[in-house]
Amino acid sequence: MKSYERELNQLIDLYKKGDVKSIFGDKFANIVINGRKVIGINEIPGIKIKTNDIEDGIHVNVSIGEGVHINNPIHLCFGMTPAEGRQVIDSEFHVGEGAYAKFLSHCIFPNAKHIEHVMKSTVVLAKDAGMEYKEEHYHSESGGIVVIPELTAYLGENSRLIEEFKMLKGRAGNIDIKYLTEQDSNSSCQLLAKISGKKDDKIVIDETINLNGINASGISKSRVVLLDEATGIINSRVIAKEAYTRGHVDCEEIVGGEKVVAESVPRIKVMHPLAKVTHEASIGRIDKTKLETLMARGLEEDKAIEMIINGLMR
Amino acid sequence: MIFRIEELHFEKGGKEILKGVNLAVKKNSIHTIIGVNGTGKTTLASLIMGLEGYIVKSGKILFEGEDISKLSITERAKKGITLGWQIPTSFEGITVREYLNINNKDLKPEESLQLVGLNPTKYLPRLVNEELSGGERKRIELSSILSMKPKFAVLDEPDSGIDINSIHYIKKALLKLLEMGSTVLIISHNEFIADFSDKVSLLCGGQIIKEGKNKEVIDYFKNHCMSCEHVGVVDKGEL
């Protein structure tokens, strides 16, 4: 049994025994959902978590009260132990004025053969609010999984959002990311996706950052590694509509297979003369100097490639 | 001699860059190659390490008596040869500690960083990425070479990007390499670096034209090489 599968099973068992606090303790808020069933919820002061059943999944509503700072990460564990099925998590995150929260989401599909995981999120950050959302995926090696993370984020004045999507174990399968931000003045966002695909995996990243208010800023950064015959398509856009808005699109795809298909389309649009947006994009093999540097320290070529890719995916 | 180059010729883009280089480096010594920009110094370093695109046209590169010119980079590194780049590259997601632990021969990362004047507590958790300054990156590169305890280290301008107050750390690291039994071949324009070498060779127009004691070769370089016909012989910068 894989370690992350064991972790999910342990979580499920502990929730069944009503002993989940032995893992997270009283200080950590958390939600554990296996398939279409809420296994457990732990609220802490300042956080309200509500769930209800929807078709093929669960609706989750998380609210952080005004001025509340949650110092410990809120753990979200969404997964499915069966090999087949569909899981829809329709979530809303409301972070009140001046509040801050950090979420660590583990999406675990250890036995996936024919699974579809849809994660639709709406994030609403009030004035001066802050939120970090780090999503880590653990999949089986079959590639039989479709993951559709969709995010629409509304960033109020002077708020900040950090959103990270990382594929940590197993095959990506078919990942189709759609992220959209609508940002008021002085708000900032960082959207980061790091995914490695192999065999016939397909990775699509579609991000749009709308800088609607004065001095709003946003960065869209994607790192995709494609091996064998994997496909990667990155469409990232920053639209700067107001004065002093600043945006940057940074796409890098590393290709390492004869049949790989990689496409990268960074798009930037400026609708105000005092706005500034930039972009950079690259598709290619692993940088020769990086590889040669590690080989000159004694690493075999394949180990050097592995170290560079692992670093890139962190 | 631990390292010899015999009648080494190299061409790039149909142009002969090295025209029969001969060089002999004594074991456990510091040997510096000086020369004007574009004379083929970095090309020579790249050929010694066997980097992509650097294939010997004719001649030999001998390490401990064996011709290594057909070996891969890793094979050369496993024999104890390494290269410190003039402009070290960056690595996204790799920490300084991890970098210094690659092929580490029992020199603790803390110790190798201290030798180049960097605070281990501050630098070990940092990433070897573009947030480091050129000078910091250069010193970390030297640390990683110290960690490797090489038999033969080729250092391409180890002093470039290092501020004047920190340059003594470069000397300290080079002396540590000697203490560990290493042999060091340096490519430099810096008189300070050349000055404490055991031997200096002057590369000009693709050949070693003068060798000897530091002062003698440095003085010759200063007096004869600044306006010589070979200046700018390679027209696309430092090859």
TrEMBL record, chain A:
Instruction: Please list the GO biological process terms of this entry.
Output: iron-sulfur cluster assembly
Coiled-coil positions are: none
One family name in Pfam for this protein: SUFBD_core
InterPro entries in alphabetical order? Fe-S_cluster_assembly_SufBD, SUF_FeS_clus_asmbl_SufBD_core, SUF_FeS_clus_asmbl_SufBD_sf
- SUPFAM superfamilies on file: Stabilizer of iron transporter SufD
Q: Which domain of life is it from?
A: Bacteria
Describe the location of the SUF system FeS cluster assembly SufBD core domain by residue ranges: 94-311
Under which name does UniProt file this protein? SUF system FeS cluster assembly SufBD core domain-containing protein
Q: Which organism is it from?
A: candidate division TA06 bacterium
